[in-house]
Task: structure prediction
Amino acid sequence: VDIRDKPHNDISLPQYIPVRDPLIALDGADWMPLPNPALGRYRSAAHGSLFHHSAGLYNQGYALCLRCGLADSMLPDGRLPSTFVENVEKQKPLIHKRLRGGRLNDAEKLCPGNDEASWAIQRNVRVGVVTHTEVFELQLHDADGKPIDRIAAYTVAVALRRALCGILGIEETEIGAAVGASRTAHREAAYSAYLYDTATGGAGYVSQITARLPELLRQARAMLDCPHGCDAACQG
Result:
């Protein structure tokens, strides 16, 4: 946030940067089949990788000034936002001020990055960070042997997380749930359900799934047998 911005309480036009599921990798972890291999497989890793990333408000990345650090979401058509240019249509002149003041009390002067835009003003930048923690991956098939879709995979992940948290007596915030595109043993496109410890490095929660998987799946199924009769997302 610009140091010159003033706080306010106007919530009539809130803007939220879309949250994207992390990209998850369990390099080197071996797959284990379910008792009926046709219904899926699972694996776990003590040092799985999570890549949290953002592509901005319009999925076009960010404009970033390497001189002062100012960043803002690129516009839907890939143009620089009004934070950087006075005339968005013409994409000039570049007029942004320093994100923070200089050491010579020149906080109100324009950023020198405006005059060095060929290299100082980066466009379409994606930002992200990698963390490592314990991860469990479950890849399920339906009764016909076909991989389940994204919605079903996410539903299973959420129900499995609730079952695990209930058994361990912990808050659901301690375990993350996510879905990601994957491949079956026969290289078919599929979706995997992931559970991971939100504590960096792992907290020892997700590592307990493997030994308790039959019990957890039974509890997750019981949770999904909901009496509310919802036809879409369940608030019950």
Observations:
- The beta strands are 23-25, 32-33, 40-54, 62-65, 71-73, 121-125, 127-140, 175-183, 189-197.
- The mean pLDDT is 88.
